[in-house]
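Tokenised fold entry reproduced for everyone:
>
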Amino acid sequence: MAGNDQAYMARALELARKGIYSTHPNPRVGCVIVRDGQIVGEGWHVRAGEPHAEVHALRQAGELARGATAYVTLEPCSHHGRTPPCADALVAAGVGRVVAAMQDPNPQVAGRGLKRLADAGIAVSSGVLEAEARALNTGFIKRMEQGLPFVRVKLAMSLDGRTAMASGESQWITGPEARSAVQRLRASASVVLTGADTVLTDAARLTVRAEELGLDPELTALAVSRPPLRVLVDGRLRVPLSAPFFQAGPALVATAGDVREVSPGHELLAMPGADGHVDLRRLLQELADRGVNEVLVEAGPRLAGAFARAGLVDEYQIFIAAKFLGSSARPLLDWPLARMAEAQELKIVEMRAVGDDWRVIAVPRPAA
């Protein structure tokens, strides 16, 4: 049965991934219901406030759910939120067994869902393809366990490690396939965060552009229906409200100075740090309190370097173009290091071609 459990859970994870662009602030969850070796119901969570994966699968299964096995990528919820508890729905449907990939890190659940099922006489187990399930919801898990969102820093550079010419010109270092991949990163994030330098130099809007996503129509519609919150770190309020960034839609601005009036649709937060700049950790805590799971940082070397120096980066996604920009061009990060012992050790977890460019995904190694 263990092999079958893995196969059915793999299908549930495949379903869960369909929610990568739309479930914020909820986790991405899939469910498969199996009876007599046949899948009789499938479901995935689409949007917050709408039925969870288990409910969709139970509706499809109908009476065939009685005595069946339910495979779910996250422990069924046991509390009343915007929807009723899924654990109760599984009990009412009369399923005989529930297999979860992992326990829910949400303190409101945290094993209570599985206990509710066990107390009702349903056989329960957890841990099937747990690593894959955790990878799908790294932001939700981190927010629940640490009170901070998962921070992913996207960088684009030349082979000689440069991100822009000395003038600030940077469009375009990489090709269309890499830019499409970045659009998908934006669409899957809860927040896209940038700095004043990027907005002023590139007239950046940081929006999700449907025509560049490269997704099928269903996923494209979901991606554009829930655009990420755009956050601007502008310590001295240098970006005028007439900038394209503000014309592109609502935004949150974090400043180190006094809060002033902003035009309707935008929000201004005073987040001064001890160094006179925006307190980035405090900003991330504020975003987590608002239900933000994943932050995509798309910024220049100063702000990206500030996140790196503060130890706030969980993952780097670096797109590398086959070109040289020269020694006077701008570096990848503003992070002056004097000795080799100060170097940040990284673990490369993935490296693959994206069109004519390469994408390297790397995570910081913990200090020894």
In short: The longest strand covers residues 150-158.
